[in-house]
Automatic annotation (TrEMBL):
UniProtKB keywords: Membrane, Transmembrane, Transmembrane helix
Name this polypeptide is given: VIT family protein
InterPro entries per UniProt: Ccc1_fam (IPR008217)
Main location group: membrane
Cellular compartment(s): Endomembrane system
PANTHER family on file: FE(2+)/MN(2+) TRANSPORTER PCL1
Classification via CDD domains: Nodulin-21_like_1
Segments crossing the lipid bilayer: 21-44, 50-69, 151-172, 178-199, 211-234
Pfam family, one: VIT1
Superkingdom, taxonomy of origin: Bacteria
Record membrane topology: Multi-pass membrane protein
């Protein structure tokens, strides 16, 4: 039983790191798809590099800022919620310590310990650090590991920027007649890689199926924007 209790926080932290890494992979995936769809659509309408560069740059900057803002708001809400729960727990420990001790005992009893053992564990943990004991047992919160909204925002923006580099280079570096096929191939290969990584990090048993969904979705997005761009280019001409 003691080995299980000791190993659990380590597993939680390891899982949290995997989730962050997976979020980074998905952020890069968003950068690949959204920017690629933009530049392919513009390239379908014109062979001039300048409009493609302007539209692609706008998609990169706008997408990165949007990702950062969304992550900042989301993590800020999570942080505020956790801090409110911590403050509530502090108040309850000050006002009704005996009731809190009994509550902690009941939690460990519900996990399979006998009443005497659960009481002993609750008393010992309370004497060591009552707040940490309750935050861990009741809420699963580590006050030393509350996420930073700014760190999450920067990480999200950086992941998007890294992903967006591929379609920008693929569309701008080749000769005009090779731009579209090179971008399609580069993006779909990259999506296959990020889809596989995301599925593995997420623990999905059907990795190939998950990666295929990402590749098919990306291909449809590129095909749709290229078709629309081509139609608008012909209309303008």
């Amino acid at each position: 039983m003691s080995e299980h209790v000791i190993a659990e926080p380590h597993n939680d932290k390891y899982a949290e790191k995997l989730n962050k890494l997976r979020a980074g992979v998905l952020g890069a995936n968003d950068g690949i798809v959204s920017v690629a769809a933009t530049v392919v659509g513009v390239a379908g309408a014109t062979g001039d590099s300048w409009p493609i560069l302007i539209a692609g740059s706008a998609a990169v900057i706008g997408g990165a800022l949007s990702m950062a803002l969304g992550e900042y708001v989301s993590v800020s809400s999570q942080k505020d919620s956790q801090e409110a729960l911590i403050a509530k727990e502090v108040l309850e420990l000050e006002q009704m310590p005996e009731a809190e001790l009994e509550e902690l005992t009941d939690i460990y009893r519900s996990r399979g310990l006998s009443h005497d053992t659960a009481r002993h564990v609750a008393v010992e943990l309370t004497e060591r650090n009552a707040l940490l004991a309750h935050l861990d047992a009741e809420l699963g919160i580590d006050p030393e590991n509350i996420p930073s909204p700014w760190a999450a925002a920067w990480a999200s923006a950086l992941a998007f920027l890294l992903g967006s580099l591929l379609p920008m280079l693929a569309i701008l570096l080749p000769p005009p007649e090779w731009r579209i096929p090179v971008t399609f191939v580069a993006v779909l290969v990259a999506l296959a890689i990020t889809g596989t990584l995301g599925a593995r990090l997420g623990g999905t048993p059907h990795v190939g199926r998950a990666a295929a969904r990402v590749v098919i979705g990306g291909a449809l997005a590129l095909g749709a924007t290229f078709l629309i761009g081509s139609m608008l280019g012909v209309t303008a001409a």
